[in-house]
Amino acid sequence: MVHGRAARQLKRLIKAIYHRDHYYYIHVDKRSAYMHREVLQIAQQYPNVRATPWRMVTIWGGASLLKAYLRTMQDLLALQEWKWDFFINLSATDFPTRTNDELVMFLSLHRDKNFLKSHGRENARFIKKQGLDRLFHECDNHMWRLGERNIPEGLEVSGGSDWFALTRRFVDYVVSSRDKLVLGLKQFYSYALLPAEVREPSEVILSAIAEAHSVIYKPVSGSSSSPAKSEEPSGWDNVRL
């Protein structure tokens, strides 16, 4: 997801993370014409880099960002020639602190895991702070508060960072499932503030396959984030992002 005019910064990121076995699907905000032209030029140079054929106006904290993620996931699942294992969202302002080989090795050890960052607080406080007990609607590139609402009974809300790494199997579940739980969560978070920060964690915890998709809440720092101590598994270089 990119926005603005910092094309040079985006090119620096792509140079740092590029590998012929990985895939890069870039959405450019509808308001960023210059950036879109630059991304199209980049995509012409690499067979595994593409720009989304559609564009949206995405605003911070808005439901449009979540919708863009879901549509991007749907596109990637439909690209049968792209055999990817993990969906990792990035912005043009991100930059890796690990090499491609380190990232692939680490994810190879946890092929069935989804990676999210928990808010780490008591849920009642988190709900109030995020405004999940209030109804919001996105219109004219703004989020409008419409009133109060109750959290659905039995729903355990969790959230944190809106940066994540999700397995292909879980992405397929989120996009394709007709389970009432998933459909209900999509409806609920379509009228929430900062939905991208809470929807995936809630779905991982509550989904019918949560047991098969156990969550690892990654710390921002610490030795547990380093893949250097892990032994290299057989076929680790086959993981594709």
Task: Report what the structure shows.
The chain is of the alpha/beta class and 241 residues long. It has one domain. Helices cover 35% and strands 13% of the residues. It contains 8 helices and 8 strands; from the N terminus they run αβαβαβαβαβββαααβ. The strands form 4 sheets. A two-stranded parallel ribbon has the order 1-2. A two-stranded antiparallel sheet has the order 3-7. The chain has a two-stranded parallel sheet with strand order 4-8. Strand 1, helix 2 and strand 2 form a beta-alpha-beta unit. The chain starts with 6 loop residues before the first helix and ends in a 24-residue tail after the last strand. About 13% of the residues have low confidence. It is found in: Golgi apparatus membrane. It is a single-pass type II membrane protein. Belongs to the glycosyltransferase 14 family. XylT subfamily.
Shape: globular
Number of domains: 1
Structural class category:
alpha/beta
Beta-strand portion reads: 5-15%
Oligomer: single chain
Distance linking N and C termini: 16 Å
Low-confidence stretches: 205-236
Radius of gyration: 18 Å
Order of helices and strands: HEHEHEHEHEEEHHHE
Biggest beta sheet attributes: 2 strands, parallel
Overall residue-averaged pLDDT value: 81
User: Order of strands across the widest beta sheet?
Assistant: 1-2
Number of strands: 8
Q: Please work out how many helical segments DSSP would assign.
A: 8
Main location: Golgi
Pathway: Glycan metabolism; heparan sulfate biosynthesis; Glycan metabolism; chondroitin sulfate biosynthesis
Enzyme class: transferase
Keywords: Disulfide bond, Glycoprotein, Glycosyltransferase, Golgi apparatus, Membrane, Metal-binding, Transferase
